[in-house]
Please model this.
Amino acid sequence: MSTTGSTARTTSRVEQKAWRNWAGNVSARPARAVAPASVGELAAVLRRAAEDGLPVKAVGSGHSFTAAAATDGVLIRPEGLTAIRAIDRAAGTVTVESGVQLKQLNAALAAEGLSLTNMGDIMEQTVAGATSTGTHGTGRDSGSIAAQITALELVTADGSVLTCSAEENPDVFAAARIGLGALGVVSAVTFAVEPVFLLTAREEPMAFDRVMAEFEQHATENEHFEFYWFPHTDSCNTKRNNRSQGPAAPVPAVRGWIDDELLSNGVFQAACVVGRAAPAVIPGIAKLSSRALSARSYTDIPYKVFTSPRRVRFVEMEYAVPREAAVDAIRELKAMVERSDLRISFPVEVRVAPADDIALSTASGRDSAYIAVHMYRGSRYQEYFTAVERIMTARGGRPHWGKMHTRDAEYLASAYPRFGEFTALRDRLDPDRRFTNDYLRRVLGS
Model:
């Protein structure tokens, strides 16, 4: 016990500077920051925080755009809990500690000939951070990363360790897979995995009106469909991923570097800088960018198809609307941009997900479409995001928990049929609100 306490105190002395998220729009200055290296150390950290009367928040890699992890109390850093505990081929599961990054998990699974079924496009997130905020990709039949959880380990406010699954503590499992850090600190996660497979990606430019007319067809006929609309144009880029018998045909190295690094990151970064300094040029840049797109097709293992490097920093808002409302919402968004003075350099991203059974999942109980809007870091985003939010909430939209929004507990209670189930569990597991912060007070109530 004394060793754990000494480690915590040493770590806190070293890390007295402010914590910032990836986008740089959220910062916090915790009283102390610790990186427990075991479940026992984590439990001791929580007990000590209770003795000192300090709130506690765990952080991942900082890829959320909200203040979900911000605290002036005890900040639990992820780098001490990074073990891959077990790969069970017979059960089709992998158990990893909360601080493991998705890129590490994907690489480790691929080395064993295994894969997650679906994932988002950013690999730097930790597994606990990604699942707790509802990170997702796109899928007709397969849902968010949290929907692939079969069990999790949760350390609660009093230092108790709960193992949760559909069979053990099922009420906690129903909520804690997307727990917002409000129920405790996730220390380990067990995911369902399957033998590694190949996906063929088909990327193709397509006119906006055609995408709208064929949206439901594409979402139904493809295992994974998404598209990007470029504001100030009538152009989209579509991506359809489907399982393939092979053979593997990865993107050639030079073509991949040109498309994914030079154009999508290097040139795009320069265009964003120019656009922030002179917004009037953005529509012209958007038209040039959309014309530069070309079709490509390639076949590779899942994480090399689903994920892509994101080096241009931005802020983001994303809403999940009922899938049947997607086309109407996107058309209204486009019309709003066109009649406004807004200048938007980032494309609008649209994805889909099937209904799931997680209490606070944005896809809880309904097939969903995700509409995400972005602005370059440092740009004035408020007018754009406010207008988009108005469009989405008029259709019962649910904001992504890790992305910017202004919704509060009153709105969210009406948007989520199981909201009361979650808050009742929070009252039981964290009656003293050890894990609260300003963000949770707004979205869950005090």
